[in-house]
Design brief:
With 271 residues, this protein is mainly α. The chain is 75% helix and 0% strand.
Length: 271
């Protein structure tokens, strides 16, 4: 019997996606389960005496504090100015930071002139500059906007020009071989290739912006989440203190969700 009679028709082989096994899967319910478990454990610990009430308040009491804040309209009185300061300061700092970072990544003269300056001011704790901003811009909103913008600016610059540097040079050479202009290469290759790194840097920058927001509001602000936490801490009111901390955590989740939504809209080509 010849070999040809033993052969069977070739079956189609399914080739998995080249990133199979490394593609992030949506498991949002896991985070919710972990959160609920932590809350229930703290509630049980505080009720049973395992956790001292002087250390952690009961989550049920924190929820009661939220209800009181909502009913008294104090929640919006403190949240509205904080959101305004965060949006204005972070938007200005991130926008300028992205623009400067792209210029550093594209132009050698700008790189040589600004990289040493950015490297010098990046390690400076921005909170330590708050008194200086108060002297320059006053105790009002100007110093708060300036501090948040400056704190957002430097990490955004570093992340942006690092992302531009990490764009695959073979793609740029391919664009040059096809006769694309410099502007077309920047628009179609460099910016899309750098976008994942830029958005990752924005996650860190916005987290820093929230930290600086609280610090700025603890100095000379009547309303704001930072002022609310400072007042609760001075009165040793743990329920109000942790309510403010939870609000900051929700604010962090909100900013992370906005970045995640932007990633899904702008980086769909990675799938």
């Amino acid at each position: 019997m010849s070999d040809t009679t033993l052969r069977t028709p070739t079956q189609p082989i399914e080739i998995r996606f080249r990133g199979g096994g490394f593609v992030p899967q949506s498991r949002r319910w896991v985070g919710m389960v972990v959160f609920i478990f932590i809350v229930l454990f703290i509630q049980w610990g505080t009720q049973s005496g395992l956790i001292s009430p002087l250390t952690l308040p009961q989550p049920a009491d924190i929820m009661t504090t939220f209800v009181e804040l909502w009913q008294s309209n104090l929640l919006f009185a403190h949240l509205a100015p904080s959101l305004s300061r965060l949006v204005v300061g972070a938007l200005f700092g991130a926008s300028v930071g992205i623009a400067v970072g792209i210029m550093i990544g594209l132009f050698s003269y700008v790189r040589e002139g600004l990289v040493p300056l950015v490297a010098a001011i990046f390690p400076i704790p921005k909170i330590a500059l708050l008194p200086l901003f108060v002297i320059w811009f006053g105790i009002g909103e100007g110093s708060k906007y300036a501090l948040i913008a400056f704190g957002t600016f430097t990490p955004t610059v570093v992340a942006t020009y690092g992302a531009v540097d990490n764009v695959d040079r073979s793609l740029i050479r391919m664009g040059q071989s096809f006769g694309l202009s410099w502007f077309s290469i920047v628009r179609k290759i460099v910016l899309p290739g750098a976008m994942p790194g830029i958005l990752s840097g924005l996650r860190i920058s916005l987290a820093i912006a929230i930290i600086l927001l609280v610090a700025a509001e603890m100095l000379g602000a009547e309303y704001g989440i930072g002022a609310y936490i400072l007042e609760a801490g001075s009165l040793y009111d743990l329920e109000r203190l942790f309510a403010g901390v939870v609000i900051l955590s929700l604010l962090g989740l909100l900013t992370s969700g906005i970045i995640g939504f932007t990633e899904r809209r702008l980086l769909g080509w990675r799938v």
